[in-house]
Amino acid sequence: MHYIKAGFSGVILLAVIISLHTKFGAVPPLGKFFDPQSGFWSNAETSPPESEILDLPGLQEEVSIYFDERRVAHIFAENDHDLYYAQGFITARDRLFQMELQTYDAAGRLAEFLGEGLLPRDLNTRRTGMPYGAEKAQASFKNDPKAREAIEAYSDGVNQFISSLSPADLPIEYKILDFEPEAWEPLKTAQLLKNMTRSLAGRNYDVTSSNTRSFFGDEFIERFFNQKPELNDPIISSDRKWNFTADVPQAPEELFKPSITTNIDPFAPDAANGSNSWAVSGAKTKNGYPILANDPHLEITLPSIWYEIQLSAPGTNSYGVSLPGAPAVIIGFNENIAWGETNVGSDVMDWYEVKFKDKAIQEYWHDEQWKPTSTRIEEVKVRGQETVFDTLVFTHHGPVTQVNAHIPDAEPIYHALRWIAHDSTNDLMAFIELNRAKNYDDYENALAHYMAPAQNFIFASTEGDIALWVNGKLPKKWKYQGRTVSDGTDPLYDWHGWIPREHNPWEKNPPRNFVSSANQESAAPDYPYYLDDDFAPFERGRRINELLSEMEEITPQNMQGMQLDLYSYHAETILPFMLQHIEEDSLNSKETEILQLLKNWDYMNDGNVIEPSVFKEWWDVTVSATFNDEYRFANVPLRLPGRDHFAERMKNDPDFILYDSINTPDRKEDGNYIINWAFKKAIERLEGRFGEFGDSWKWGYYNKTNIGHVALIPGLGASGVFTSGGAESINAIRGSHGPSWRMVVELGPEVKAWGVYPGGISGNPGSPNYDAFLEIWRTGELYELDFMRDEPEEFVYKMSLKSAE
What we know:
Layout: H1 2-20, H2 30-34, E1 52-53, E2 64-67, E3 73-76, H3 80-107, H4 110-114, H5 119-127, H6 130-142, H7 145-163, H8 172-177, H9 186-201, H10 206-226, E4 274-280, E5 291-299, E6 301-302, E7 307-313, E8 316-322, E9 331-333, E10 337-343, E11 349-354, E12 363-366, E13 369-372, E14 374-380, E15 388-394, E16 400-402, E17 414-419, H11 428-434, H12 440-447, E18 455-461, E19 466-471, E20 486-487, E21 506-508, E22 514-517, H13 539-550, H14 556-563, H15 569-580, H16 589-600, H17 611-634, H18 643-652, H19 671-690, H20 699-702, E23 705-709, E24 718-721, E25 737-739, E26 742-746, E27 752-756, H21 774-779, E28 783-784, E29 797-800
Helix pairs in contact: 3-7, 3-9, 6-9, 11-12, 15-18, 17-19
C-alpha cells in the first residue's frame, strides 16, 4: 500500500511538473511563466537605462545611439552598413515580437506558432500569393546593391540582438505563447513590405459589383457608382492640364457577365485604411516657410505600427517613423525636405473567371487556345497538429481559387487573382533615397523606385517647393476594367502594361499654394486614364481644401489644430434634409428634445456631445432600412453605395425604389417613411446599448477606441479610450482605426517638427514607455521632435555599439 501511495504521488508530481511546462490552449506553461528568474517578472522595467558600451561583431566603425527623454533612439554612424545594422539591433530590442508576428502573418505561418485556429488565415494568405510575391520582391532587393546592403545589414543587427537573449530576456509575448524567436532573414523584410501592400491595396469589390449588377442592372450601377457627387474635390486640382496623349486599351464590345458567387475575402483589410496629408507654400505661412502635415489612418495597436527614430550617417540625417522590420525612415524629414504618404486606392487587384479543360485543371482556355497551368505546393505547419500541404494552381493572371467549393455537388467555378503584390518590386529604395534627398529632383527620382501599394507622396523643401505625386505602378485599363469579375478567357480583360510614370497625376507649386490628399478621387474627370471607381468619400478632402484655401499667415500650430478638426461634411450634407422630413407631431417629449439637439448641432464630432451618436445611428438605420431587405433576399454579397453617393441620391430621388420594403407587400414605403421610422429606431437602439438618454450617449463612448495588443493578447491593450473624431472628419478616429502618426514639419533654415503616435517606443508591456504617448495622442497634442543636427554633448542615455579603438 505504501508503494502504491508513493507511486500515485509520483504520478501526481510528474503531472504537475508536465503541466507547469506545457501550454494548454491560450494558457502559457505556468512554471516557465511564473519563474522568478526567467518568467514574466523579468520583463518589468523599474528604472531608467544607464549608458552602456556593446562591442558588437560585424560593425565596421563606432556607432553611438542617443536616447532622448521619450526614449527615441538617435543613431549616429560612420557608414550606411553600420547605420542599418544599428537600426535593426535597436528596433529588435524594442519591438522584436511585433516584427516577427507581422512577418509570420505575411508568410502564412501564424498557425505554426499560435495553433490551428489561425490555419484559415494562413491558407488565405498563401492562396492569394503573398509568400510568392515576397520571394519576387526579395529577388529585386538582391539585384540592387544599395537595397541589398541595407536589408542585410539590418538583418544582421536584428540577429545580433536575438543572439544576445537569454530565456529571462525574451519579450513577454514569447513567454505567454511559449515559443522563441527565429533568425531574421532578408526575406522577412520583403514579407513585411508585402503585408503593407495587403493592408493598403488588398481589397476589391469585383464579386460584389458583379452580383449587384446582375441583381439590379446597369442603371443602378450608373446611378450609385458611376456618377460623381457634386461636392467631389480631387487630389490634383481640377485646373491641372495634361499635356500628353493617353494610350487607353481597347474595351470589349459587351461587358462580361460572370457567374454569381460568394467569393469574398474574410480577411480583407479595413476599407477605411487611408490618411490625410497636405503641404502649404511659404506664400501662405506666417514665417514664409513651407509646412507639411501627414497623418496616416491605420488600425491602431499596441505596440504601434510605427517606430520613431533618427538615422544619421554621412549623406543622410533623417527623422520620422520606420516600420519595425525594415530599414530607413518611411514618413519623415531631413535637413532639406519632408515627405509623407496617403493611400491612392487604385484598382490593382482583379479576379478572373477561369475556364479549365477538365477536372485535372492543368490547362485553361485563354486567347483561343489551351494554356498550361503551373503549381506551387505550400507547406503549412500547424502547432500541435499535422502539417497541411496545399497545392496552388496558377494561370498567367495568378493563383486560382475555387469560389464555390463549400457548396455540395455544385459545378466548380474558379477565379484567378491578378494582384500588384505578386509583382517584383524594390520599393524600399524609394525610402532609402528619400532619406537622403535634398530637393524636388531628388524626391522625384526616389519615387521612380516605388511601385506598390500606390501612394500619394506629398513633399515640401527648404528651397520653397511643394508637390504631390500619385505614385506607384498603375495598370493601364479601359474605363471600369476590373470593377467586376473579368473574363479569364479574353485577352481584352488582361492588364495592358502600365500607365507611363510621367502620366501619373501630379502637381508642383500649384497656383493655390497648397497640395493635399485625403484618399479621394486622384484627378478631375478630364484625366484620361481609369484608376478606380472606389475612392474615399469627398468629405475629408473637401474640408481640407476649403480650410487651406481660406487660411493665411499659417503657423505649424494651425496645422496641428487642423489635424484635430472634427467637422462632419457628411452631416452638413444630409442632416438638414433628414430633419426637414421629420413629422414632429408624431414625436414624444424625449424624441422632440433629441431632435432639437440635432437642429442646433454644429456638425462637430466632439466626444463630449450626444449629437454625433444620434446622427450616426440614425444614418446607419436609414441605410440598412433602405437596402437590407433586397440585399438579404439576394443571399449573396452585394456592394453598397458609398456614403456620399447615397446621401446625394437621397436628396435627389425621394421615390427610390429600394425604399419600399419587400417584406411589407401591403404598404409602400418612401423616403419620408424611412427617415421617420429610422429616427425612432435609432433612439430605441441607443437606449438598448447605452441606457436612458443622457451623458452615456456621448460620442466618446459611442466611438470608443479599443486599442488592442498586436497579437490580441487580453490585458495588453487599452480599451475604451474616450475619443473625438469620426470617419468623415479630418481627425478620422473611428473605433480602433485612425491617425497612427501625426506629424507637422516646418521647412525653414532650421527644420522644426512635431509628432506623436498612440503608444510608446517600447513593445514591452512591462515598460513605462509601452503606452507613454497614448494620452497625449488622445488629447491631440504633439511633441516637438528632438531633431539632432550633430551628436549631442548632453543626453539622457547613450549606447555605444562599438567602443572606439
